[in-house]
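Homework help board

Subject: predicted structure for assignment chain

Our instructor gave us this sequence and asked us to write out the predicted structure in token form, then describe one feature. I got the tokens but I'm not sure how to describe them. Can anyone check?
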Amino acid sequence: MLKRIIFLYIFILLPLCNMSAQCTYENRAFSGSEVINYNLYFNWKFIWIKAGTASMITQPIVYNGKNAYRSSLVTRSSATVDKYFMMRDTIMAYFSTELTPLYYRKGAREGKRYYVDEVWYSYNGNKCITNLKHLTSSGDTYKEKFVYDRCVSDMLNSFQRIRNVDPSGWKEGHVEYLDIAGGEKLVNARLIYRGKKEVKADNKKKYNCLVLSYVEKEDKKDKEIVRFYVTDDNRHVPIRLDMFLRFGSAKAFLK
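My token output:
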């Protein structure tokens, strides 16, 4: 499940044409490069132990001749934890300066399982076209193409978009609906506002945070995948992440 959270292939992007306005977003949360580092903790037999590190890096690039951003989320378990459960996740998203999705890649080794998800985006009028590729741990490759009459996004790009939302009018329980591409199908997810909370990070500082739950349907039931604690300001920097995994739970705190 960590593959959806804490998350270079050489390729040629399909030409962009008449990019739909519905896939653009005003970016106020970051400019230039941004590097955020975290300590990662696992719940091991009711005890929280330091288990590795995570980092989120966003930087401006020139992509296909145009100014763009590349954002990556990398998680690494420590050598001690590797003996029991190795985790090597790298999530990467390319998007325009207006946060329009361009490309997504997720490569993950979780235990003995390794897989790769990729999504290429292109636009034609009001159509959003996604070409998906999924490499399974058994070495099988699956490819799918979908055309939507609305904008869809991947998890990392969606998170950067949410960072630019103005939540001033939100009440507890407010829902933002997300169409998430990746893997073998489109996921209809929700981001639920849980209120505000003061959070102490691993840098010993305390932050006033908004609390956001990322929820998906699993076996027709709501499944909370991750709970974000982001600063209550214009940048919405993620300070803490609570992750609910198949093998237990994990937390990441700003370092």
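Reply (TA_rk): Your tokens look well-formed. For the description, you could write something like this. The CA atoms of residues 44 and 178 lie 32 Å apart. That's the kind of observation they're looking for.
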